[in-house]
Amino acid sequence: MAKDMTLLWVTGSPPCWRVMIALEEKNLQGYNQKLLSFDKMEHKSQQVLDINPRGQIPTFKHGDNVINESYAACFYLESQFKSQGTKLIPDGPAEQALMYQRMFEGLTFYEKLNAVIYYEWYVPEGERHESALKRNKEALVTELKLWEGYLQKLGSGSYLAGPSFTLADVVVFPTVGTVFRFGLSPERYPKLGEYHNLLKERPSIRASWPPHWLESPKGLDTLKDI
Q1: What SS3 class is residue 15?
Q2: What are the GST C-terminal domain coordinates in residue numbering (predicted)?
Q3: What domains can you pick out in the chain, each with its CATH number?
């Protein structure tokens, strides 16, 4: 089954990482994959554009089915391989409701993170303002405190939707991994730090850990004062 799958990806990209974790959790190792470079603009190559006209990654194909949006790909993999590997959508209505809620809140978390760590990438030099970056940082602090509170309420050793690892963890952990890669203090955000430590040794996450993070374990300090 995995032989019919192709993933074009970039190291350190949370959307790509989401799909890779889902593939691992569903025991779909051995899929075709190609690591691309943002710096070389390979995400705009003809190979990508033939599958994904937006020229974005991840680019994912299963047989003739193309699912490029990372959340959609994760839902698709759980739906098509429901009885294989980890069950990623719980049956209980309360846990399922919380899973969906946290999944889609995760998009806001990711957006607010990017507005800080990639501010200079997204905003042309002549349009940058310290006041705008300050607002973005304040919005990220508010967001981080929200997630810290969610985890506090669930208690130690919990996943995002309760006692089971679900799609919420698949799609949100890459953002959590990225905040700590960029220097977030686990002392200042102990519940997020605990969650990060709980999941980073999970086999699916170890197997899909960004290769350039492995090569250079020391991260950045962009968020050290957040």
Answers
A1: helix
A2: 92-220
A3: 2-81 (3.40.30.10), 93-215 (1.20.1050.10)
